[in-house]
Amino acid sequence: MNFDFSDEQKQMRDAARKFLAEKCPPKAVREVLDGKATYDKALWKGLAEMGFLGVAIPEEFGGAGAGHLELCVIAEEMGRALAPVPFSSTVYLAAEALLLAGSDAQKQKWLPKIAAGDAIGTLALFEGKGNPSPQAIKLSASGGTLSGVKKPVPDGAIADFAVVAARTGSTGRDADISLFLVDLKAGGVEVRSLTNIDPTHGQAELTFRNCKAEPLGAAGEGWGILTQVLDRAAVLMAFEQVGGSDRALEMGRDYALDRIAFGRPIGSFQAVKHILADMYVSATLARSNCYYGAWALSTNASELPEAAAAARISATQAFQHCSKNNIQVHGGMGFTWEFDCHMYYRRANATAVTLGSLSYWEDQLIDRMRKKNAA
Amino acid sequence: MNFDDTPQEAEFRATARKWMEANAPKKYEAELSKSSLGRIRLEKEEIVDVGKAWQKKKAEGGWACLHWPKEYGGRGATPIEKVIWQQEEGVYGKLTQPFQIGEGMCGPTVMAFGSEEHKRHYLPKLASGEHIWCQLFSEPAGGSDVAGLRTRAEKNGDDWIINGQKIWTSGAHYSDYGLLITRTDPNVPKHKGLTMFFLDMKSKGVEVRPIKQANGMQEFNEVYFTDVVIPDHQRLGAVGDGWNVSLTTLMNERMSIGSRLATGFPEMFEFCSNLMTDDGLAIDDPAVRSKLASWAVKASGLKYTSYRAISSLSKGERPGPENSIGKLVSGTMLQDIATYAMDLEGAAGALTGADEEIASGQFQQMLLSSPSMRIAGGTDEILRNIIAERVLGLPGDIRVDKDVPFNKIPTKGR
Question: Which ipTM did the prediction report?
Fold first, then answer.
């Protein structure tokens, strides 16, 4: 059994960590947090030059053609560094949708640009409150144009193109949904930035008024493709969440070693130790679930739906748990803007809902386990 | 990343599987498969007798204590081969329960500190199941604080005279030998005055009394020592070095990688899939699903954490500290799952008869037994300390009794 990343993959993780430590220190994250930039453009270019944006994109489409295990280790580092760039929307959502359902021409048009850092993509799925479901999609498509409103759309205000889920039928079945590709710079889409709890990642409202769109994948197969895209993104996002969990744990540990109260490091008090031990437990469980998700993702295993849901739930719980208790270990200083703890707390709770909430994925996991047991 | 054996591992697995096919005591398979929670019991026979026969057969085939050197009754196998063997032994591994303390703790301590003569005399019989060993560490006044133990050993010529009491000794009533830690010098700080011995459990003055536990069962014992004589050559390590010797014993507990702890999750998933409530199947209730999902990812997280440890072994590395979370997670899970299963049964949740509804009283039994999972072998709190100190590198607690002679440490609060 070799249930671990290879030495080459670990080297790539180290390289990504080193690169991000240099190019994406907390100070850089704060530029976006404080609204001085919509995202870190220099970092985005740097990631492209390192080959990280196209690591899982085949060479024929301008990528490195390495694979999804490589993408997982990079995702972990992106989460650890809170990289303020549209990585998840472009790479996990838009690129994965193109790879799964795009025509050759569509792939040729967008994937090389993604790999080069020249195009930002996103997925326009949600329409207000609620979790992913075909019934919640009202935006309609007719005669090659889209009409309706999508929100929240991750990185929607800076994206060059979007994969849009639209209603093309009214039978009440999954086949009512089709996917479309929209060039957001071609006009016809009204973009409005939305405030959100994690300003290091923008959210937007996109209003489509008879906007020109081209089909992505076959008509009526949109929901099936979306489900696969969400599963794949769930694993990748889970790695980001695990990277963030580990960093929050380290921050708490370092502070507990450093901070003296009652004449001793606070890390020598069992009340503090036990908080940190429980953070370690949740981060470890999440990491192990993520490894299984990575295996299923990289091999396209039939276990992917279940593995993705498990990784997503475990990592969401771990990041929320670690980031809130990191603040608790820091005490009052953890509640200042100056300390970085809140940036992890914000990211943890934003990523917890971005692909559908925890309760949605819990529901999915149980459905999928039952399906497997019935089979 | 894959789940495949290396060619050598595959060959080893094939050999083990072939031997198991020819030799496994298949008539117990169904019964052993069913007993997933708590202690194993067989309907018609004593687990110790059946276990001894199985252990003897394994020893003859070269499959007992297989990571031990051959001259002491083992096979000289690598750690990953031991894990593969455990996988192939499957449910029959439950028969080895009476020998686990001997194999995992007492044997390795004798191997590290015993004379060559002792090793050749005692270890092969331990490996073949002819002799069962128990571990006499915990005391009424020394549980988590095991170094606070009070059982005295006093030198008398070439012998030592033992007086005192041990508690929570698994298997003392059927054990032939015991690993015993004693206080030989109460005038020095507590960790410095300890000495380790092994003794014949049939020695004069050894009295074993079963403990009736909170769950109504009797699985552990108290052991009383009244003027028990142990010859000095049965001392393990130097006089006063017992604490260091005991650390070797406890370190060997880590060898338990690959043996899976019960979490109660598979039973709970099945229970919820079949339980009809007033609102339909329990598993269709969003509240139930949410709880199940959280337990599911804990159970799978533990499973894949052990896979990561096995992968390290396979590469010839020492597994990281990740596996230390197993008991901490599974103990609380058992307790929480049992509580929730009873809740779902409503008022009938209090009934424990085996004929009650579909759960057959298993969750009620789980509820009553689960507190011990959170205490035995290191309480949840001690485990959190271990993770915090050894994994995360946090400072040890300030110990008020550290440099105080043992006989000057207060023995009562208030």
Answer: 0.96
